[in-house]
Amino acid sequence: MVSLSRRTLLKSAAGLGGAYGLGLGAASLFGGPASAENAVHLEARLTDALLDGQHLTRGVMSYGMAGSPDTAMPPTLRLRRGAPFNARITNRLDEPTTIHWHGLRIDNRMDGVPFLTQPYVYTGDTFDYSFTPPDAGTFWYHPHCNTLTQMGRGMTGLLIVEDPKDPVFDAEIALNLRDWRLGGDGQFIEQFKPRDAARNGTFGTVRGANWQLEPAFDAPSGGLVRVRIADTDVTRLYQLTLSGAQALIVALDGQPLPTPLALETSVIGPGQRLDLVLRMPESEGEVVTLTDTRPSTAKTVATFRSVGANRKRSLGDVPPLAENPFEKPDLASAEEIPLVLSATAENAARDSICGTLGYSFWAINKVPWPGDVPDPSAPLAEMKRGKSYVFNLINNTPHLHPIHLHGMNFQVVSSSARPVSPLISDTYLVAPDEKVQLALVADNPGDWVLHCHIIEHQKTGMTSYVRVV
Ligand code: C2O
Ligand code: CU
Question: Which of 78, 173, 310, 312 has the lowest tally of Cβ within 10 angstroms?
């Protein structure tokens, strides 16, 4: 599990005695060019931030680049498909943490789940993550320890994997959508109410994007803009719609659509991503509005204003994005694995150094997950590497659940609730009473958690894992 920090890279470069000058960067030893984006040193830290537009909120938790005094949103990391990436995390919080790279199909030891894949990173300690992203697209990163508090207080960052074959747009905007649970004085209030945790989850009181209220962006008139949207909130689903411009959905959950779809409204749950290409109005000063229409009163999420000379582009110019590799499951030979979501009255919550909410409200296959403990329940299934499987997911609850699988992607093959397109994803938003089949080839060895990404559900029982051997 040895990985190389940026410092090690620089040191070995020095040791090579000017190899840089010959165009042999240190990282050529590891197969990729040396550049800042290939190696980052992040710090998990406490900070103060202006989140409600009026008060400085104390006790905000974020990631910042080590050595920089940033007090802002966690940096949007940019990686390249197929290029090795190293991230060192130093924990400057006063509690343990880890990083999970949501949606990335990487080595199990880099997955960031305490006990299952790695030890905690204690205060003052460091952990080196090192992996090569196999897929291009929009992903994100967050802790997998005391998750409701750490994510609720700020630790959700975007991660973009670029593909050299990606089409070039006139502008690109990344939106990190999330709420804050603040009181009238701008300070954090209790992160959850048990009553709500047993229903749809506890909602934030201040709604934002990129740690701002209704951020406004400028984009070239008549230009094509790629908008990468991630729902990193602990609870909220978004029903997004655009006014003032036409847009295409080009990718969902990081995975390109074979044919871009016109955007009408699109619902994404916590953990999910939506990539749009919008075509800006031609005359300067016109404003396009991205709105969340899920609550009864529509809410502006962000606005885009056209500036400069008309680029005269058209949505018809948008090619599909390059495909990511995905091994097609063999449905004829696939073994079926039941995955039944339900409420539970049985309390299995156990104390954990990674935080417990103290309740069990939910279960998968009748087993409520006890929390991050050294001896969790047995895996939901043992899967053989290279074999095809189908999860028969049934939602026996009256709530929506964004179910997320670590380490592997699945294909949605059938649903009792809606027509399915051959969607490849890591997170499926299952509706009340819906039965859905998610198929995959078990191609990544290790223990992989799967859980609801409404964090209160995750932390009160709706978590399990599969083992690929
Ligand atoms: Cu984004 Cu286990 O989660
Ligand atoms: Cu849920």
Answer: 312
Q: Is the CB of 100 under 6 A from ligand 1?
A: yes
Helix (H, G, I), strand (E, B) or coil at 132: coil
Ligand 1 binding pocket includes 181 (Cβ within 6 Å): no
Q: Which atom of ligand 1 is nearest to the CA of 451?
A: 2
Residue 20's pLDDT is 26
Q: Select the CATH number that applies to the domain covering 27-162 from these four: 2.40.50.140, 2.60.40.420, 1.10.10.10, 2.60.120.10.
A: 2.60.40.420
| Ligand 2 center to 400 CA (angstroms) | 6
Q: Which residue, by CA, sits nearest to atom 1 of ligand 1?
A: 102
Question: What CATH architecture does domain 3-13+167-317 belong to?
Answer: Sandwich (2.60)
Containing 456, the helix (H) or strand (E) segment is helix 455-459
Fold agreement between 3-13+167-317 and 27-162: yes
With 0-12 / 13-18 / 19 or more C-beta atoms within 10 angstroms meaning exposed / middle / buried, residue 155 is buried
Which parts of 280-399 are beta strand (E)? 287-292, 299-307, 335-343, 362-364, 381-383, 388-395
pLDDT digits (tens, 9 = 90+) for 21-56: 222 233 322 333 444 458 999 999 999 999 999 999
Q: Which residues does residue 183 pair with via DSSP β-bridges, in sequence order?
A: none
SS3 content of the chain, % helix, strand, coil (to 5): 10, 40, 50
User: Cβ distance 357 to 347 under 8 Å?
Assistant: no
Q: Is the pLDDT of residue 3 over 90?
A: no
Q: Give yes or no for residue 415 having a pLDDT over 60.
A: yes
Angle at 414 between CA 412 and CA 416, to 5 degrees: 125
On whether the CB atoms of residues 460 and 197 are closer than 8 A, the answer is: yes
Distance 209 CA to ligand 1 centre (A): 20
Q: Longest C-alpha distance within the chain, in Å?
A: 67
Q: What is the pLDDT of residue 142?
A: 98
Q: Which ligand is nearest to the CA of 199?
A: 2
Q: Which ligand lies nearest to the CA atom of residue 432 in the structure?
A: 2
At residue 349, the pLDDT reads: 74
Beta bridge partners of 129: 87
Ligand nearest to the CA of 197: 2
> Quick check: helix, strand or coil at residue 26?
helix
